[in-house]
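Need tokens for this chain, all 282 residues.
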Amino acid sequence: MAWDLSVDLIKATVQLEQPLGDGSRTVGTGFLISDPTPDGKPRTILITAAHVFEKMPSVSAKIGYRIEGDGGVWRFDPETLKIRDGDHPLWTKHPTRDVAAMVVEAPPEFVKAAIPIKYLAQDDTFNQYNLGPGDEMMALGFPRGLSANPAGFPILRSGRVASYPLAPATNFPTFLMDFSVFPGNSGGPVFMAEGARRRPGAAESQEVQFVAGLLTQQVELSGERLEIGIVTHAKFIRETLAILDKIPGAPVTQARLAKPEQSIPGAIPAVAVSAMAMGASH
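Here are the structure tokens for all 282 residues:
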């Protein structure tokens, strides 16, 4: 059976949120990468847009892990994730791009689900497969904090590449995607998962599956959303991970399980919101 990057990234993508004092919450998206330390020790790293953490004023956030029970039943199982030590951020930020990386101590299921770093696009990936405007890519996220279901799985969107040229990332660090973007999508992975595509000069088609980058912004003009997303190239995720490797004793952030006596509600599924909206309209 062919490897399915779509399903694997769904499993590796998590909601990040922090309640605010006024009863609202700030929400973003992150995904887990498996990237061993320079000396070969296993390591799980949370990737998101840097502004997701920067807009969270408190020292801790919630990371939306999910647990599979008997009979394939999933439940939303968020944990508290410390993102600051006082005023000191515990994440590593790219010096020029909206990318953040943080080493986390994830549950075993999520350690296993983390995407190997080799699936992050390289500098030549776009040219290698002759990618350009009109090619379809997909994105995962939690628009306005909504999930696909109460178990907290992300919502999958798709859109077309809407800008040219795409490479090299050094000259064109971001590219545009033609699809709707909402608060909460920031930090989500943007990827390509085609069953068959023929490389230029190749005799046979092959699977094309890679993470192109992460969603960092939406395009607005005079306060109007233009239904266009801005994607930061995976090159800058790789560069952020390289910076992390150079930090001696980079902290591992241990998430804390919610106390057993706490009531843990399910994630807010989009279908429930839709049903409420329909009910209110009658």
